[in-house]
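To: structure desk
From: M.T.
Subject: fold request, one chain
Message: Could you run this one when you get a chance? Sequence is below, nothing fancy, just the single chain.
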Amino acid sequence: MSTHRALLLVPPLLAAAAGVAAGVTTLARRGWMRVEVAGESMTPALLPGDFLILRRGAPERDGAFGQVVATRDPRPEGDGRLLLKRIVGLPGEALRVGGGVQVNGRALLESYAHGETPHEQHRGINRLGNDEYFLLGDHRGASTDSRDFGPVRVDRIEGTATLRYWPLARAGRLRAAERRLLGLADRADEGPTSPLVAPHQHDHPTDAGHPTESGNP
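Reply: Done. Structure tokens follow.
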């Protein structure tokens, strides 16, 4: 599996224990989702094989920054697969991504992030809409995210990660990352950026994806 995929595999955990082959399905239990992390785009916060509980729907706007959320890849080649990403841009904010992240002209300090944004994924946006979030994987060199398919509307966020329940050694509540901004960002070292894909412009191919809710990843 490519490390450029942040897939969510929904594990039928009890069924697997009974010897039923683990498929890629979505379970709904009173507004919650159980998922297994596959891929490395959210390392080191989330590792392949981590099992999570997600609360269905988007987080409250006041506490949205830094939350890990699930959305579907809107690109045709993404085949509607679920992705786990972190919210780094909030409604109404201006962003530049490449050589770091700038929010409204200030550098965002990201202790959770690592890796370099590939040059072809450098992006800039004048202003996010009132119902839009900008999502990034923590492993910037191995993630398909808003750099590829643009901002994500709040109604396209299917769940918010709240708890890791397996493995037991890593079990515990998943908390939002702290938001820290420096003063005026140094734009000299950024290099060129290209416009973000508009939310409705998903009809051009970028890189191939794998299905997450049918077939094998």
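Reply (cont.): The chain has one domain: 7-195. Let me know if you need anything else for the meeting.
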